[in-house]
Amino acid sequence: MAKRSDYLTWDEYFMGVALLSSYRSKDPNTQVGACIVNEHNKIMSVGYNGFPVGCSDDEFPWEREGEAIDTKYPYVCHAELNAILNNAGADLRGCRIYVALFPCNECAKAIIQCGIREVVYLSDKYADSPMTRASKRMFRAAGVQLRKLTPTRSSIVIALDEEKV
Fold it and tell me: Is 80 among the catalytic positions?
């Protein structure tokens, strides 16, 4: 019997973990997940966008427009930063991070500071924004590799039905 030929590539597997993590986000507009992986293809940490621990998602705003203080932007911790902070102190130097949405400038700083060497992303829909342009400038200066993932499949189905196991 031959082995399966339709198994996930490492890139699809880790991006799938990042996307699955995004399902934990309670943000009504944008759900992002991140997965940090070391050079041995071991998952070091995962994260998703949401409010900091102790800041109730029922009491803080989810709005995208209005006075800055009344929007989600000053409060939400992005998936990349959460993945870095969730890591429990292990060395992330030389790791790569998988994220659906290209990192903002604030996350880029954290990615660079902890020594992550590669960013693998699906979407760069804010490519022309000043914050994304700043991210790319910092990544280039720091020697962080950027790679847009082109998946070989359009979906990964996870069945939670006991009979399918």
Answer: yes
